[in-house]
Amino acid sequence: MRTGSPDCSLVFPPDPVWVRTAREAVRTLLAAVQRADLVDTALLLTSEAVTNSVNACRGKGCTAPVTVFAEWLGQAPGRLRVLVHDEAAGMPVCRTPGSGEESGRGLLLISSGADAWGVCRHGPGRGKATWFELGARGTADRPVFGGSPG
């Protein structure tokens, strides 16, 4: 649903250097509508979703681009939805890594920090999309990553 609030999309090769660009695009989108309350969590979850897609592509030899789309749902702006699509084979799995493992926490962080999230096979082309939403009303108990509870 278009509400007059800005949205954005990025298409880039599956390379880790683009994770920062995706984060900064979401930061700019939040600044444009003065939603500082969502910045820390949105940037963390965007970083995790994009990193997961880039790693999936690189690990499976997929060179098709990764797409990030961020949009506002509802009124004035309401909820932020970020969708990250890649064409790597397979679906991501939410798991609990061991304390010594350096990776494997992306979907766990997304599931903990988002008001809603999921993985689906919808989106441009083959592959899958990981999406999350933030800013739903009545979510005062949602953890805030990187910031102080407000």
Strands ordered across the widest β-sheet: 1-2-3-5-4
- Weakly predicted, low-confidence segments: 138-150
How many angstroms separate the termini? 28 Å
Query: What overall form do the CA principal axes indicate?
Result: globular
Q: Sheet with the most strands?
A: 5 strands, antiparallel
Can you walk through the features of this model?
With 150 residues, the protein is an alpha+beta fold. It has three helices and five strands. It has helices at residues 18-32, 39-59, 106-113; strands at 8-12, 66-73, 79-86, 116-120, 128-134. Strands 1-2-3-5-4 form a five-stranded antiparallel beta sheet, covered by helices on one side. A hairpin with a 7-residue loop joins strand 4 (116-120) and strand 5 (128-134). Helix 1 packs antiparallel against helix 2 (39-59) and helix 2 (39-59) runs antiparallel to helix 3 (106-113). The two termini are 28 Å apart.
Provide a short characterization of the protein structure:
The protein has 150 residues and is an alpha+beta fold. The chain contains three helices and five strands.
